[in-house]
Amino acid sequence: MEALLSQAEQLPGLVAASRSPAVRSWDPATVSRALGWARAFRHLHRHLRDAGPGLREAAERSLRRRGLHGGLGQLGRSPSLLSFALLENRALPSPARGRLLRILLLPSGGGEEELLLPLSARRKAAAQLLPACEGPADRAQAQLLLSRLREEEEGSGLAFLDRLPCGPALYKAVASALLEPGGESEAQAVLLPWLLRRGGGARLEAFCRLLPAARLASLCARHPGLLGPYFGLLAAWGGRLAHDPLLGEWRSTHPEVTWSELRERIRLLSQEPEPLASAIREHIRKLKGQDGDFEAPGLSVWTDLLIDLERPDVEKPGRDHSQFVTETWSERDLSSP
């Protein structure tokens, strides 16, 4: 046992190093080894905790002599001490931090192995997950977010999302999670309600402005509940455009809304498989009728959008994804956010 306890002498130095600028030289493998040592110390703690009183007392005295003034308790908190030290150390490089987040949020062993990773550390890791995973890590980002939502108690997922910094990183994570295979339950129970909740029009608009039009079209094909609010937003944008007869183009007093952007978004929606494509055209026809049902161009933005969609160079919808579009639209669905 003395040999095992002698290894525990390394814990204070390991925690101190994880709090210092020395972590600038750490790579992902170093993070894995450090957390491996922490879990080994935790295993040792459990072994000694379950031993007889005489052995526990002897271990406590030995640990305190070796610099672990917290005794067995400090040994048992090894994963927490190390995890929090690394999470709070801004000197830790991004690749190493990414490995840390994955270990904390997606433990590979499951079962007992997962219990050795502190819940408080996993929650702190989830708050850092979004800005740490960018670019090509979209799928990993989505999987981490879904994993964290599954860890929440039923009904508390919305509160968890509300605690995260709201901005581009979170919106990208939500969009990726909505398209992730196997994430349908979380999408319906948490992600879509959070995105579309009453009074959240500003959130939906920020989400839609951030994402590429093609990704939004894919999201609408996958989740019909998003289509109505998104189209309502497009209808509101279209209402801000006015035709300039001298220039022969649609212009807006709102610089963030342009004819070319609106046309591109509508085109991409209309290129999705049936029944979404036909539904888009039908609702543009309804808006055209409400606008006066003009046939001549330049009088209604909806007339001009229909003319644009009926041009021969506009791609027609391809394969059938009707299994993703099972809901019908109602007038309530199409109301502006």
From TrEMBL:
Gene Ontology MF terms in the entry: ubiquitin protein ligase activity
InterPro entries: FANCF, FANCF_C_sf
Record GO cellular component, one term: chromatin
Region (Disordered): 314-337
GO BP of this protein: DNA damage response; interstrand cross-link repair; ovarian follicle development; protein ubiquitination; spermatogenesis
Name by which UniProt lists this protein: FA complementation group F
